[in-house]
């Protein structure tokens, strides 16, 4: 848990404390050796060894009204889809495919039944798309609507954040920054700008990279999913792997829609790609001898792993950036 | 899911709809055959087959501020303990012991760090007591504090709600109604009544029946945990098993503290035992040939299973009663 920041004040609020410190404190409270082959707090998923030599992967992600979506603005089917996608993406990042899920639903007084049916419909669409099955869960009273998805998956081997080695290439699985731009467009209300619909769709209906999992299994030395922005995830990889990540701005894949969106605002599209969250693309590293595995995939090489520490963009240190994970409408942190 | 009530109005609120209808709708949306050996929605846990012939058990339970506890009134260590206990109790009810957990934490702005440390401390105490390990989870921004515990366990065989057969005896694992009385005392503020501390402790620090699991495995034809009150759980067993449950009021175990509490109010202690929730005792059925297994346990025989349907107390129909699961400070429903 070397990524954690620290605070000396026990009176610090959760907001001030930050998610990393919260996780560090949780890990400290719940510390102690785990049985051999068990992966605990600190990666995209936890893992338990399977008798066939593979691993069972476990993760959870929650969508809370007022934080991750706004009732009445997001369609509830989209909320169900996104909740499932966030968990499936964690499974993919560890090299696995999802199998089964439990859904924990917190329902405030007066919640409309049709909105919950739409939420289930979104979950059912995700089931069909990603190939998992909801086999249980819990329905609870709550004070705001929240849907917490616990996902189980399996992988032949656990692909961690910590396996990147100097000389490996750094790759991403598609264009970046689109979902964050889509959220901004959604916040601003109706837009007729070119590509706006595509960007909004990328926010409301992100896709976990299940199709890339065989490549990750075969070729990746490390992987993480991009829920908090490329910059933040590169820092996680660098710290977990004890290596330096060097990326090249000109190699970062940008959609035409994002470029048009950013140019219309006078922004650099690269800033959106570096710091925008919830794309659910995969960021991974590939040893040189496995580079041919990238072949026909949508993945792009954006840099290389070096000896050292930190993250560099075109040779200059790149600050962590990324989402503030306890702020409204932003992504969260896996412990 | 034959236990479900129905509503024709898609505009019904969640409150009006009720948890059983919500679960029925979820099950309908997420329907379809599961692979052989997989247990889906409808019992205390879901289950996946293990290669050794046993089952992996999966469940989750959440504690939401303002619903299941009141910040500042419940100690946060108690909240962590109760959240873990509720999930462990589900595992025990299916004949299993807990192994690993993920903890999903929703943290509102301004949450005090020391309160979260206390919550983790309660989880760590539960880990040590019940023998499971927290191996991951998620920290998310939220609008109210909530802790969702996803628990994994294992059992040599899955003990369901549906295995009770006519002639089996009905047993419970300890005194009932204590936790509900404790909550009432807590609501009312400080009390010097005899036994008040014990009852409050039974609410704040309920104990899952891990010690009874070997007996459940060896002797039980069906089992369920008493989270929603004896009456409600008997109805669940009766419906899942397609049988009638006959219990005898004089056999229901009551603590001296509950009896004193109820008498001081002019209540019948039996009503607290029948309808009070969150005791986390086990209700189970035992075929006559296995009755000697009850031997030295704390379990009491309270009645017998018969041909037919419904639940009867001293020969008279016993209404379902129990908690209203979407009401504040009450228990919830497993799907």
Description:
The structure is a homodimer of 335-residue chains. With 335 residues, chain A is an alpha+beta fold. Chain A has 3 domains: 1-32, no CATH class; 33-155, 2-Layer Sandwich (60s Ribosomal Protein L30, Chain: A); 169-317, Phosphoribosyl-aminoimidazole Synthetase, Chain A, domain 2. Chain A is built from 10 helices and 13 strands. In chain A, the strands form 2 sheets. The first copy, chain A, has a 7-stranded mixed beta sheet with strand order 7-9-6-10-8-11-12, sandwiched between helices. In chain A, strands 1-2-5-3-4 form a 5-stranded mixed beta sheet. In chain A, strand 3, helix 4 (113-130) and strand 4 (133-141) form a beta-alpha-beta unit. The longest helix of chain A has 18 residues, at 76-93. Chain A is globular, with a radius of gyration of 19 Å. The N and C termini of chain A lie close together (10 Å). Residues 1-16 and 323-331 of chain A have low confidence and may be disordered. At the A-B interface, helix 1, helix 2, strand 2, strand 3 and helix 4 of A face helix 1, helix 2, strand 2, strand 3 and helix 4 of B.
């Amino acid at each position: 848990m070397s990524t954690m920041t620290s605070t000396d004040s026990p009176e610090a609020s959760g907001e001030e404390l930050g998610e990393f410190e919260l996780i560090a404190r949780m890990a400290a409270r719940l510390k102690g050796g785990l049985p051999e082959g068990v992966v605990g707090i600190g990666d995209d998923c936890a893992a338990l060894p399977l008798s066939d030599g593979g691993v069972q992967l476990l993760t959870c992600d929650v969508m809370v009204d007022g934080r991750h979506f706004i009732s009445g603005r997001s369609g509830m089917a989209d909320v169900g889809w996104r909740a499932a996608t966030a968990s499936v993406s964690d499974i993919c990042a560890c090299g696995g495919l999802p199998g089964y899920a439990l859904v924990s639903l917190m329902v405030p007084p007066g919640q409309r039944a049709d909105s919950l049916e739409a939420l289930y419909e979104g979950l059912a669409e995700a089931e069909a798309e990603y190939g998992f099955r909801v086999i249980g869960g819990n329905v609870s009273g709550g004070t705001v609507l929240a849907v917490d998805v616990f996902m189980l998956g399996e992988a032949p081997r656990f692909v961690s954040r910590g396996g990147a080695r100097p000389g490996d290439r750094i790759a991403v699985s598609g264009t970046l920054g689109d979902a964050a731009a889509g959220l901004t467009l959604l916040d601003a209300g109706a837009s007729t700008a070119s590509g706006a619909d595509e960007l909004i769709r990328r926010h409301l209906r992100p896709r976990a990279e299940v199709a890339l999992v065989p490549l990750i299994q075969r070729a990746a030395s490390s992987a993480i999913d991009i829920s908090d922005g490329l910059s933040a995830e590169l820092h996680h990889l660098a710290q977990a792997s004890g290596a330096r990540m060097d990326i090249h701005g000109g190699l970062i894949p940008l959609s035409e829609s994002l470029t048009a969106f950013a140019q219309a605002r006078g922004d650099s599209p690269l800033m959106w790609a570096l710091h925008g969250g919830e794309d659910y693309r995969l960021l991974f590293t590939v040893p040189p001898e496995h580079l041919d595995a990238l072949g026909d995939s949508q993945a792009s090489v954006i840099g290389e792993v070096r000896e050292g520490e930190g993250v560099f963009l075109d040779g200059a240190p790149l600050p962590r950036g990324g989402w503030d994970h306890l702020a409204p409408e932003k992504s969260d942190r896996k412990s």
